[in-house]
Specification:
globular, Serine Threonine Protein Phosphatase 5, Tetratricopeptide repeat, single chain, 345 residues, mainly alpha
Length: 345
């Protein structure tokens, strides 16, 4: 009985730290629980989810599989496992996991949405559209599905449809910063510069650290010749999204003088990050090529340029980044499914 009480207390503490993004503390508490009870489902599931959030995907994979062995019909575990497979670029495994979720619960909206996102990334637009439309049958006001459909139709060149879906997402949630940012990109294609700028400004007003909106607004000002404003905006984008090396690349377009040894060391360190997106890694190589060019090491410059271009064309256009609650980060929602006052498996 004493051990059970201790587990209850530790689990509450772990969960609270997890909610507050205190990942190290939460991880330690979860591990302590597993010393008492190695088959404690809720701890295994949440620790697996935590590892996904901090991009330790192989550890996450192992734990989520273990959680599913304990509860084979737990839809949340299958959904998060699908997300991990996607991050590891095991797309067949991801599709299989999402389909299992939908078989368990056809109305599990996040799994249907995630499956649509995956199909979009794989350029299977018809399947993606069908998934997002199914989401809207479940919940017509699911803003992410409207936003995602907007992204698909923008990709397909149907700007009128894209605009309509982004506007619908904003109608549902007037504080949807990403939808404003995406609507701005539609106006860019429509050559409506004033409306484009207003959309990015609105996105930033809603969420000041929206790196995409700062970046896109910087591109506009650079095109208008307002280079000092563009520099400030690119700098803000880099501040809010330091792992995205495209921001530094554009900054060096405007000020080659920032290519100092301190920045070079920072770029090199970022490029060693195994979780760095391929597109960002491509721009890291482009930046390194500029250093080699400045030093007149032209063979090295060419090698960096070649590697950068190879990575750029390999890169997946992660168009849905930050558009969904990918790892159940809104952990309070789990309270509907997990009674933290009990520890039964």
């Amino acid at each position: 009985m004493k051990d059970i009480i201790n587990i209850d207390e530790i689990f509450k503490l772990a969960f609270q730290n997890h909610q507050q993004n205190n990942f190290n503390q939460a991880e330690n508490h979860y591990k302590n629980i597993l010393k008492f009870n190695p088959l404690h489902f809720k701890t295994i599931f949440l620790l697996g989810t935590l590892y996904a959030q901090i991009k330790k995907f192989n550890l996450s994979l192992e734990l989520l599989k273990q959680a599913i062995e304990i509860q084979p019909k737990n839809a949340d575990a299958h959904n998060n496992l699908g997300n991990v497979y996607k991050e590891l670029e095991d797309y067949k495994g991801a599709i299989n996991s999402y389909e299992k979720v939908i078989k368990i619960n056809p109305n599990f909206i996040q799994a249907v949405n995630n499956l649509g996102i995956l199909y979009f990334d794989l350029n299977e637009f018809k399947k993606a559209i069908n998934c997002f439309k199914k989401v809207l049958l479940i919940d017509p006001n699911f803003k992410d599905a409207h936003n995602n459909l907007g992204l698909i139709f923008k990709e397909l060149g149907d700007l009128k449809m894209a605009k309509g879906y982004f506007e619908k997402a904003i109608t549902i949630n007037p504080n949807y910063d990403n939808a404003y940012n995406n609507l701005g990109l539609v106006y860019r294609e429509m050559k409506e510069e004033k409306k484009e700028i207003q959309c990015y400004q609105k996105a930033i007003k809603i969420k000041f650290n929206n790196a995409d909106a700062h970046y896109n607004l910087a591109v506009v000002h650079q095109g208008l010749g307002k280079l000092e404003i563009a520099k400030v905006l690119y700098s803000k984008a880099a501040e809010f999204e330091p792992e995205n090396l495209i921001h530094y690349y554009h900054l060096t377009d405007l000020n080659n003088g920032i290519l100092n040894e301190k920045l070079k060391a920072s770029i090199a360190e970022k490029m060693l990050n195994k979780n760095l997106q391929k597109k960002s890694l491509a721009y890291g190589n482009f930046l390194m090529s500029r250093y080699e060019s400045n030093n007149k090491n032209y063979e090295n410059e060419i090698q960096y340029l070649k590697k950068g271009h190879d990575l750029f064309f390999q890169a997946k256009n992660n168009k849905f980044r930050n558009k969904i609650n990918y790892w159940l980060e809104e952990l309070p929602n789990l309270l509907n499914k997990i009674n933290i006052n009990k520890t039964s498996n």
